[in-house]
Structure formats: C-alpha cells, structure tokens
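User: Can you fold this complex?
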Amino acid sequence: MTTAAKPLLSVRNLVTRFGRGRGAVTAVDDVSFDVGVGETVAVVGESGSGKSVTALSILRLIPSPPGRIESGEILFEGRDLTKLSEREIMEIRGDRIAMIFQEPMSSLNPVLTVGLQVAEPINVHRRKPWDVALGAAKQLLGRVRMSDTESRVRAYPHQFSGGMRQRAMIAMALACEPRLIIADEPTTALDVTVQAQILDLLKDLAQGSRCSLILITHDLGVVARYADRVVVMYAGRVVEQAPARELYANPRHPYTRGLMASVPRLDGDTSKRLVPIDGQPPNLARLPTGCAFAPRCRQATDLCHRERPALAEIGPQHQTACWLETPAHV
Amino acid sequence: MSEADVLLRVDDLQVHFPVHKGAVFRKQVATVKAVDGVSFQLKRGETLGLVGESGCGKSTTGLAILRMLEPSGGRIEFEGQDITHFDKSSLRPLRRRMQMVYQDPFGSLNPRMKVRDIIGEPLEVHGLAKDRNVFDQRIAQLMRTVGLLPDMADRFPHEFSGGQRQRIGIARALALEPALIICDEPVSALDVSIQAQVVNVFVELQQRLGMAYLFIAHDLAVVRHVSDRIAVMYLGRIVEIAARDEIYRRPLHPYTQALLAAVPVADPVVEATRKRVAVSGEVPSAMNPPSGCRFHTRCPLAMDRCRHEDPALRDLGAGRAVACHLHDMAA
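Assistant: Here's the predicted assembly.
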C-alpha cells in the first residue's frame, strides 16, 4: 500500500474480549492493520489466532454478551465503526462492507429462494421494489458465472452444490457494490478444483470494481496466489505483516518461518524432512506473560519469556513483533 | 514388481450402495456406484497415495479393503489370500495384519477409556495381553514410538491435543505390528503447524518398521510428501496411477493436470508465473455418472469419442497407467 493514499480501512489497537473476570479471554489483542483501496489483504493464522474474531469485530458481529470490543478504533471511510449505533452499522453491513462465510449452507436461509436472498440487500439498502431487485439478482447470478439464471433465482439453497452456494454468497456480497469484502475461509469446505474457481472469481470481481478484499485463511498457498499483503496472527496478536512477496522471500518472525517450513509444497524437496513447529497452538485462557510464541520458539531467550515484544518496523512496510528482530530493546 | 513383493492386490473392486424409497414398500430406485472398477497393487513397505475430491470413492475403497464394507464385486487379495468374501471368524486374524488410522482424532477415541486401554485394546482383543507386566511395557514402548511420554498412559483422550490424539490413534494401529496401515485423511483435521509433526511420525515409522501405507487424502502436497506411488480417483474410478515424481512432473490425465494446477504453491513468485488449467463445474453425482468418460463434462480437451466411449485404464509401462482417450495412441 502506498503511504500517500489514505487506506480504506484502518484497524487501530483493536481489543476484543470474551467473558468476564478470571475466565476472560482476549481473542484479539491490540491488533492494527490497514487495507488500501483495491488491495487484497490476507489474515493468516491457526485456530485460536483471532483472525475470525478480527473480521467479526470489523462488522460489529461479535455476540454480546459474552463478547465485546473493549478498545481501539476501526476507521472506515472516515468513520469509526466501533462508535456507530446498531442502526448505523446495519446500514453499512451488506452495503459498504460485505461478508462471505466459510459454510455457505449455514449462512443461507433454507426456506427462501436464492434469488430473494441475493435481492434482499438491494431492496433493503437501495430501497428498490422487489421486482427490480429480483431482476438485479438475476444479473448478479450471471456475474458469478452461473448458467440458467432464470431458474436459479427460483431455486432453494439445498438444490445447489457447495460451490454454487458459495457463488450465490458472492453474488449477495456484490449486490450493493461494496468497497470492502471480508471473506472468512470462503473455500475451506470446498474441493480444490472448486476452491480455485471460487477464489479466482472473487479476486476477478473485486479487482474489476476496485473493491478491497480481506481474505482470512490458514492456507499459505492461497495467500501466495491471491494476496497483495499479509498479516500473520498468533494468539490474538499480529506477529508479522508485510507485502506478500516480501513476506515469503524474507519471513522474519520465528512463527512465520516455522509455518513456511512445516507445510509441504507441491514443488518442494520430498527427500527433506518437514520441520514441524514444536508444541501446540496456545490456549488463550492461559497465555504466558512474555511473547505468546516463546514456549514453541527454538530461539526464545529469557527476555522473550518475560516481556511481550511490540510490533516494530524492520523494513519498508515490513513489521514484526519479535525481540530477536529488535535488538535495540535488549 | 515380483509376485512375492505384492502385499495387496485389488482387482476390479466395486462397492455399490442401493438407494431406497418409500417407508413401507421399500423399493430400490437407484444405485450409487461409489467404487466402480478399481484395480491396483501395493508392495510391502510401500506407500500408495490415493487422492481425489470428495465423493470420488477413495475412503470407500479403503473401507472395502479393510472389509468394513462388503464389496459388490471384484477381488481383494492380501498376503496371497483372497479376502473378498472372508466371514467374521476369518476376518479377525486378518485385522492383525491390516489396521486403520482415522481422520478425526476427536471422534475415533473412546472418551471414557484411558490411553493405556485404547492403545492396548487390539492386544486384548487378540489375546496378547495376558501378562500385565509385558502389556505395560508394550504400551510404554508403543507410546515412545509415536513420540508420547509413557507416563501419560493413565490419562483420558480429552487431556490431549489434536496432534497427540492422532499419535494415540497411530500407536493403537501399530500395536499388532500390521503389514498394512490404511490412513484415511490422517492429518486434515489438524492445525497446519501440527500436521508436519504427524506426517513425520508416519514417515519415520515406515523407515523403522517397514509397513505399507494406503494413504488416503485430498491434500496433494501432503500425499506427495509421503507416497512412493499415487493413484488419482474420479467418480469411483482410478484415472491415473504412477510413481510420485512422474505424476507431479508430467501428469497425463486432464483431471490430474487440473487437480495439480488448482493447488496453490506457497510462493507468490512461483504463483505469478504458473500455468493455470481451469476446469469448469463440479463433480457430478455418483448416482448418475456421465456417459463415456466420467470426466468429459468438465474436461477442457474432451472429444466426441469421450462422450460415448468409456476409456479403460491403460498400462503405459514403467508402472504408469492412465484412463484417457488422448493417450490411447501412446500405448
């Protein structure tokens, strides 16, 4: 992202917590990142890294109680989304910002036709009468490359395959020409050949309308193929962020390096042993006082166990939160 | 491959499931041909990767070989014996030689049993657990083999992480020292940073103990890492089978090509220049598979002949076979 252009979305020191008192869990802990206009940003992490909660926080979809956004700002088109009333955020959801979930079957309403569901945002946000909205829905289904849209608009979600449902979700997301689409593991439930179709389609359509994309995933291959910039999360924090090419060429955080060494590649050397990351993903309810990755890190020092490193600039647009990379602090 | 080396020989295996309709007068209205003419061989100590998308019949093939599903046709030969229609009493000794590791490390371990009893259950079932001391030693040894601490033997499954549970499942499969382990998506439920740990366990155990694996998975990069040979399945059939490097370097079947091209490589520089083979649509229903070549509805190279004529799996020599009319000439 260029420094001159103003980012479309700017998440600043976001903290999202669940529960209260001793059982409280900080799912998102002081997370900051920007998304530029037309940019695709991948948020990468394993289960419990806080990547999905970050996405839900942006759209204010955190179930409350038990969850709440405790502090921080989410700046989008000049407004702080955390300060908006429920009514104001509803006007943004599905209009300026759209979301695509992992499991299309559970995010589509089983008793409404697909056409009606794709038309709904146009009816609600654009105040168009239903017949006009349904006509637009037919066009949208065509844009996500469905054939025979005439009968597809009248079909119900159960009559669709997994890939078709995800296409319908994309059509719904595109309905009001959003500036930002957040896709949370949009293809994890799909087969590889269908995954490639859906992600290609999503990227094409987003690029065509200069719409920004936040792609939440655990798949480093998907990130390499589609992302401009990458945010790596671990235990609720950003541990590294950089432009995609820079991150893959020069990963600096031991967790990022560990991930890259542990995943077998289609073009990798099969005679080499995979290098796993020791230990297990962290338990958010019992995080260590220092760096959350320290218990699994082979290079951890006393300092790492004692104090948390802050995210620091280590190169152009490249930041990491690791004591090994910030010797000035030692 | 010499006859003595062949551990498992599967010949024209078919597993069909009837589809019924009606509650009172149940009648069969259709047949799902989940596995429809699958043939391959597996050598001792070898790993054959079985890949394909959901519904291609790869798991059903595994279950039929284990005889947890009744084959509808064809022949399965294991260690020189025809086991296709073994009855219950003959299956028991067979199961000492052939074990399974499941996908879901949460669902496949009994939550009320201690790890010791889970790993030791096969020994009990086969009457090999008479002496308590020997039994305990064997459990400790098995746990060390898969990288677990023996002093955790009295804990319950919920006290373990996903990766550790999968190790427990592997230790249970190893207990009887089988000649073949069928692994059905053994790492796909695990977090990425944990998958490598379990993959390494599989690779190292084979080097030490020399058992064969039938490694069923949809992750082509993982399969490539562990397999000697790979069979690609589509709608109940093997469409291509070859040595690992052959299939990844020079895939012949258009489906294999599409499958490999669809998997992104974790390197943006490589991705920017990679050739993309696009296939349209999704896998058709196995209840009503397309005529001719089953892949013709999605194949970018389909010819008229492909719509009518079902291509046979044709041997191209050097352990390579492909079922595609485009490669008829090559044979």
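Residues 192-208 of chain A form the longest helix (17 residues). The mean pLDDT of chain A is 91.
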